[in-house]
Amino acid sequence: MFMILGYPAPLMFGQLLLGLINGAFYALLSLGLAVIFGMLNIVNFAHGAFFMLGAFVAWGLLEFLGVNYWFALLLAPVIVGIFGILLEKTLISRLYKLDHLYGLLLTFGMALIIEGLARNQFGSSGMPYRIPAILQGATNVGFMFLPNYRAWVVVASAIMCLVTWLIIEKTSIGATLRAATENAPLVQAFGINVPRMITLTYAGGVALAAFAGVLAAPIYSVNPNMGANFIITVFAVVVIGGMGSILGSIVTGFGLGIVEGLTKVFYPQGSATVIFVVMVIVLLVRPAGLFGKAA
Amino acid sequence: MTLLSRRTLIATAAASSVPLAAARAQKPTLKIGVLTDLAGPYQDIVGPITVEAARQAVEDFGVAGKGYNVEILVGDHQNKPDVGAGITRQWYDRDGVDIVVEGGSSAVALAVSEVARDKNKVYINSGGATSDLTGVRCNANTIHWVYDTYMLGRSTGGALVKSGGDSWFFITADYAFGHALTRDVSEFVTAAGGKVMGKVATPFPATTDFSAFLLQAQASGAKVIGLANAGSDTINCIKQAKEFGITQTLGGLLVFISDIHSLGLEVAQGLVCTESFYWDLNDRTRAFSARMRKRVPERRLGMAQAGAYASTLHFLKTAEAMGIAEAKKDGAATTARLKAMPADDDCFGAGIIRPDGRKLHPSYLFQVKKPSESKGPWDYYKVMATTPSEEAFRPLKDGNCPLIKT
Question: Does A171 touch chain B (CB under 8 A)?
Answer without folding.
Answer: no
